[in-house]
Structures are given as structure tokens and as C-alpha cells.
Design brief:
heterodimer, A: alpha/beta, five-stranded parallel sheet, four-stranded antiparallel sheet, B: alpha+beta, five-stranded antiparallel sheet, five-stranded mixed sheet
């Protein structure tokens, strides 16, 4: 069970986040301010830290800077009401590994936490396989079984991102940031439409759909059972 | 209190300063006149004394008679004279002895008489005199009193007094009048400002039409008030607009939750209700986020992150992003950018992409099924011009300027999905970058241009190059 330290001063938000993450199988401890958070972060052994940007006692970025200064390398996700690019940059420079602006959905948070935990596994492999799907990053070719897939460049990147996170929920915001490389939230159904297009290319008439839509949350690619 | 205020007015102070300056100048001028006049008078006197003394000295034998005759001719009793032997005994003249301070060097000078007045008291009078030694050892002294010279100074000081007194008085009066007038204008302006401060924002400062400094100031303040009133109106309508945008999804969420609490029977129905409610909540957050973003962009805090941005690449990527939606709606999106060239602007890549994406989003939203959207990048007068044109219903001419204002939404757009702050956001982004956003007619449809001065343009000249870069799927 991955151990997660949540440093969040609003007790209702903290309780909601903690119970959702516990339900997803995390062991969650809560610290209600920066000083307490820093103390717990130093004392415990954590797999991931989720930290609010603005905290009483000691600001979230200061906590992170202090931890990084002490060579503490636990992956950290910053939560903040300030979601603009320069704020994100400041957060990431202070030692954050990811940044999520409020309001967020719990699934988005969970997906990002999982992504942080799996980061070391995101290998530099050049041949990706998920069930019948095969993606060759060197030759830029994609096949499903014997059928070769005619993918546009962006669809190829989209599929690569999904394949690297097999069995994991990815949200439209994550896709937009990672695949399109723009920090901007477009109309929510834009990604859905792109995903629909990709799906039509992936799934033949009698084939099992590979991309599952997690309703209201995002997408998940998994091999057929 | 009013009197105290009057003395504090600038007009009064200036009048007083001018009066002081004129007084000083007048005193200097009168002193000069006095000096010149006295000099002239003294020179006349000296000439007369020199001339007479020489005449008497030229004929020593007749000196006594000549002196007596000279003194006799003195009808105004202003002359003094003495002819003294070498041991100082007076032979003739109306002075008992030679003035002790007279130097017999034949040069006119001031001396003090040894004359006696009627009471017999010794009384020295200051006179202008000349003394000279005759060849026979006697000494001659002639003198004239200096009353005429003193008279000159009296006349001039009197003239100065007569002139200065009224001038200072008039200055005081003029200063007071000007000060009162200024105070009157200021009072009128103060009252108008007080009315504005009390909340009557449509009040304006009165103008006299004299185009003086007060009128200019009042005109400037009035223009400022127009702007403040406009901004306040805007804020008010922004409040209404945002309240409307927030109230609708919140009301839906509330009613849906309330109804679900009573009526839902299965977990699946609960889940559906919750999903729907979450969607409406997301919509309210989107409004709030957009409002905050516009505020942040308008504060210009993001300029620090400016870098070189390839506008052509942004256009191509935006078109690519929207291509599937356009395809669904059977809308052809054409991009007129030569991929090999482009325009480089200094800016925020994310924001510029957001601006173009918003324009494209609007164009696709309002273009009817089967319509066309054209996205192009051309050079005009050394600036890159990004154009998004569609053949939809367009924007009414009256709405074109209003639609760019913060948070304005044409009534028509309220019927459609989305936050509706798109164009306000684009306008804010354009302003931040120093770009110009214009809305025109595409005959038919809407044509929105983003003119980017200062961008480095390498677009091939001769108008847009049309290519179906990303509309492979378009019908």
C-alpha cells in the first residue's frame, strides 16, 4: 500500500481527499499546516506527498524547498488555487513534480498521484506493446495484430501516452498538457472527439475496444481480457 | 474662514508677490531718478559757485565790492560768502568766519557754515561751498545752501509715496478680487465633486466656456469621470453577466440534487445525477477561472514570460486541435500558412494559442453545418496579421465593439454552450501583447483579425497561401 502524506489546511477538503485516496488503496496521513507537514515529511517514509500551495505557518513552496534542500526526493504534487503558468513554473522550480490547480476532480488527483508513483517505470523503451497493440517509436509505425494503423502524428503521440500508462486513468487535462504541450484548458469535448477518432482507427468492426471511457473523468487503455 | 481662504488663494498670493516686486522696482527707479536729479542740481550749483568765485578772484581789488554785490543780489537768502584776511579776519560777507571744514582748493564741496541765526545761536548749516586763496593772501569762500537739493528728495519721496500707496492698495484689492473669483470657481467645482462623491456619478463639473485653466482642468476631470462611469457600468454589467452565468448551472445542480434526493431509487440513477451535477459545477468553475484569467492577463503580470513564438505553428496546431470537431460538423477548416515560413512574435505561447483557439472555437461554433472557416497568416504593412474568417451569421455592426469589451456577450451567444468569455479573453490577450483585435464582415460571416505589430514576418508576400493542411477529414 503506497503511503501518502497530504498537507492541506482546509479540514473538509483534506478529509474528502484522504477518504477518496484511502478508498483507492493509499495509506494517507494528514498534516494541517506547513510546520507540521514538514515535520511529518521528515519523520515518515512516504511514497508521495500532496501539498497545498498556501498553508498557515509555513508556505507549501517553502516546505518543498526545505525538503529538497535536505535531499528528500519523495515525489510531490502541489495543489493550488493559483493555476497560471508562472505559478506552476514557480511550483515546479521549488521542487514539485506536478501541479494541480483547484478546483480539481478527485480522479484527476488520483490519476496524477499514480502517474507520479509510476514515473520510474516510464522507461525509454522504443517498442511498446499492450495486448494486440504494438507501437514502434523508431519507425513510427503502429499495428493491431496484423493490421497496420494509419495514425496522424498527434494520434501516434496520444496512443504512446496511453500505452505508457496502461491500466491507468488519464484525464483530458493531462493529455492536453503532455500530448499537445499547451497549458490551456480547451472545450472539454475536444479531447473526447480526438479520442473518438483514434478509437475508430484502433478498433476494427469485430475487435474489442481498447480505450475505455471513464465517464466524466478520462480514459484508460487496457489490453482485452 | 472665507477671508482666511481668500488670503490663501494662489491668485491673492500672486497679486501680493507682484505688488512686492513692483514696490521694490519702484523704489529702485525713484532712487535712480533722485540720484540723477540731485546730481544735476549739484552740478548746476557747483558751476555757478565756480564761475562766481573765479569772477571775484580775477579782480582782487574789487573783490569786496563784488562779494557784497553778489550777496546783495540774493533775493532768496540762500547765498553765503566771506572774504577773510590771511589771519582769518572777515573783511566782507555774511559769515563770521571761514567754514573750518572748507578746503581752499577751488573745488566745490560740502561745508558747514559758521553763520549765526536770528537768535544769535551758533548753528552750523550744511552748504555747498567753494574756497580759494587769492594771490594777495586773502581767502574767498562762497556758498549756497542745499535746500534745493533736499527739496528734490522730498518731492521724489512724496511722489513715491503717492504712487506706491495706491498701487499696493490696488494690488491688494485686485488680488482679493482675483482670489475671490478663483475661490468662487473652486467652490463651484468642489460642490460638483462633492455631488459626484455622494454617488451622483453622472454629475459633471461645470464649464464657463472661457477655456481658462479651470475649464481645462474641469474638462480633463469630466473625461476621467466619463471613463470611470463607463468602467463602473462595465463592472456592473460584468457582475450581472457573471451572476447569470453562475446562477444557471448552480440552479440546475441544486434542483437536480434536490430532486435526486427524493426521487432516485437506484445507485445508477444516483451516479447519473451526480455526474450531471458535477458537469454543472465544472461549468461554474470554468466561468470563475475565465474571470480570474482575464483579470490576471489584464494586469499584465505575464509579460515576464514572453518568448519568441511562431505564430504560423500556433495556427496550424490550433487548426489541428479543432479539426475533429469541424469534421463532425462538416465544416471545412482551411489554413493559409506556408509551413516553411512563419511569423515570430514576442509573446506568451500558451496565451497566444488560447487566443487563436478561442477565435477558432467561436468560428466553428457559429458556422452552420457544411460551412467554411479560414485561418490565415499574412503580412500587412510589416505586421503579421492572423485572420479567422467564417461564413456563419457574423456579428452585427453594433455589437462589434461591444463584443470585445470585458465580459460582454451578444444575446445570441447565450443560447450556445460554453463560457462565453472567449472574445473578452482574446481581447485581453491581444492588449497584453500590444496586438490589435478587429472584427469585420466576411460577406457573409465574421472576419476577426489579430494584427501583431513588432512581429518578425517571413510570410511569402502576395496574400494568403491556402492549403488544406489539416482538413484531410473535412467534407
Amino acid at each position: 500500500m503506497p503511503k501518502l502524506l497530504l498537507i492541506e489546511d482546509d479540514d473538509i477538503t483534506a478529509a474528502e481527499i484522504a477518504s477518496d485516496l484511502r478508498w483507492r488503496g493509499f495509506g494517507v496521513e494528514i498534516a494541517a499546516d506547513g510546520i507540521e507537514g514538514l515535520k511529518q515529511a521528515r519523520e515518515g517514509s512516504w511514497d508521495v506527498i500532496v501539498i497545498d500551495r498556501m498553508l498557515p505557518g509555513c508556505d507549501g513552496l517553502t516546505v518543498l524547498k526545505t525538503l529538497r534542500g535536505e535531499d528528500n526526493k519523495v515525489p510531490a504534487l502541489i495543489l493550488s488555487a493559483m493555476g497560471h503558468v508562472d505559478e506552476r513554473v514557480r511550483g515546479l522550480r521549488a521542487g514539485g513534480d506536478d501541479y494541480l490547480s483547484k478546483p480539481f476532480s478527485l480522479v484527476e488527483l488520483a490519476a496524477r498521484v499514480e502517474a507520479l508513483l509510476r514515473r520510474p517505470a516510464a522507461s525509454r523503451e522504443t517498442l511498446l506493446r499492450v495486448g494486440p497493440l504494438e507501437l514502434d517509436l523508431i519507425t513510427s509505425t503502429a499495428t493491431r495484430g496484423q493490421r497496420s494503423l494509419d495514425l496522424l502524428q498527434r494520434e501516434f503521440k496520444l496512443l504512446e501516452y496511453l500505452m505508457r500508462r496502461e491500466g491507468q486513468v488519464v484525464t483530458p487535462a493531462m493529455l492536453f498538457e503532455e500530448v499537445w504541450n499547451y497549458n490551456f484548458m480547451p472545450r472539454t469535448n475536444l479531447i473526447h472527439v480526438h479520442m473518438g477518432r483514434l478509437r475508430r482507427k484502433l478498433d476494427g468492426p469485430d475487435e474489442t475496444p481498447l480505450i475505455e471511457t471513464v465517464r466524466g473523468i478520462g480514459y484508460m487503455l487496457h489490453a482485452p481480457a | 474662514m472665507l477671508r482666511l481662504d481668500l488670503f490663501r488663494t494662489t491668485a491673492f498670493r500672486w497679486a501680493m508677490t507682484a505688488a512686492a516686486a513692483f514696490t521694490g522696482l519702484s523704489i529702485i527707479l525713484f532712487a535712480f531718478v533722485y540720484w540723477q536729479t540731485a546730481h544735476y542740481e549739484r552740478a548746476q550749483l557747483d558751476d555757478m559757485l565756480r564761475h562766481e568765485a573765479k569772477a571775484i578772484a580775477d579782480d582782487p581789488g574789487a573783490a569786496v565790492a563784488a562779494l557784497k554785490a553778489w550777496l546783495r543780489d540774493d533775493v532768496h537768502s540762500v547765498r553765503y560768502g566771506i572774504l577773510a584776511t590771511h589771519d582769518g579776519v572777515a573783511q566782507a560777507g555774511n559769515m563770521p568766519s571761514l567754514p573750518k571744514d572748507l578746503w581752499p582748493d577751488a573745488k566745490p564741496q560740502y561745508a558747514t557754515t559758521e553763520a549765526q541765526d536770528a537768535d544769535g545761536d551758533e548753528r552750523g548749516e550744511r552748504i555747498r561751498a567753494i574756497g580759494l586763496n587769492l594771490p594777495d593772501g586773502r581767502t574767498l569762500a562762497l556758498g549756497n545752501d542745499t535746500d534745493a537739493l533736499e527739496h528734490v528728495s522730498v518731492v521724489i519721496i512724496r511722489a513715491l509715496g503717492l504712487g506706491l500707496g495706491p498701487m499696493v492698495a490696488l494690488s491688494l484689492l485686485g488680488g482679493a478680487l482675483l482670489g475671490r473669483r478663483a475661490l468662487g470657481r473652486v467652490t463651484v467645482l468642489s460642490e460638483a465633486i462633492a455631488a459626484i462623491r455622494e454617488g451622483r456619478l453622472s454629475e459633471r463639473l461645470p464649464l464657463t466656456g472661457r477655456r481658462d485653466e479651470f475649464d481645462r482642468l474641469a474638462t480633463d476631470i469630466n473625461a476621467m469621470m466619463d471613463e470611470i462611469e463607463r468602467l463602473l457600468d462595465e463592472v456592473r454589467s460584468v457582475g450581472d453577466s457573471i451572476a447569470h452565468d453562475l446562477r444557471t448551472p448552480l440552479t440546475r445542480a441544486r434542483t437536480r440534487l434536490e430532486r435526486s434526493r427524493n426521487a432516485v431509487t437506484s445507485p445508477a440513477e444516483f451516479a447519473a445525477a451526480i455526474d450531471e451535477t458535477l458537469g454543472w459545477l465544472d461549468q461554474t468553475f470554468a466561468v470563475i477561472t475565465a474571470v480570474l484569467r482575464i483579470g490576471e492577463i489584464e494586469h499584465g503580470r505575464r509579460r515576464a514570460a514572453f518568448q519568441s513564438v511562431d505564430l504560423g505553428q500556433i495556427l496550424v496546431e490550433a487548426a489541428e486541435l479543432y479539426d475533429p470537431i469541424a469534421e463532425d460538423r462538416e465544416i471545412t477548416v482551411r489554413v493559409g500558412v506556408d509551413q516553411a515560413s512563419g511569423a515570430i512574435a514576442m509573446g506568451d505561447r500558451d496565451l497566444l494559442f488560447e487566443a487563436v483557439a478561442n477565435l477558432l472555437d467561436n468560428a466553428i461554433k457559429f458556422t452552420p453545418r457544411g460551412g467554411h472557416v479560414m485561418l490565415s497568416l499574412v503580412e500587412r504593412d510589416g505586421s503579421a496579421v492572423v485572420t479567422v474568417a467564417d461564413d456563419g451569421p457574423g456579428i452585427a455592426e453594433d455589437d462589434r465593439t461591444r463584443v470585445l469589451k470585458r465580459f460582454y456577450r451578444a444575446e445570441r451567444s447565450r443560447q450556445r454552450e460554453g463560457v462565453g468569455l472567449g472574445l473578452s479573453l482574446v481581447a485581453a490577450i491581444a492588449t497584453l501583447h500590444g496586438f490589435r483585435l478587429t472584427i469585420g464582415d466576411n460577406h457573409p460571416g465574421c472576419r476577426i483579425e489579430l494584427v501583431c505589430p513588432g512581429s518578425t514576418v517571413a510570410v511569402r508576400k502576395g496574400g494568403p497561401i491556402t492549403s488544406d493542411l489539416v482538413s484531410q477529414g473535412a467534407i
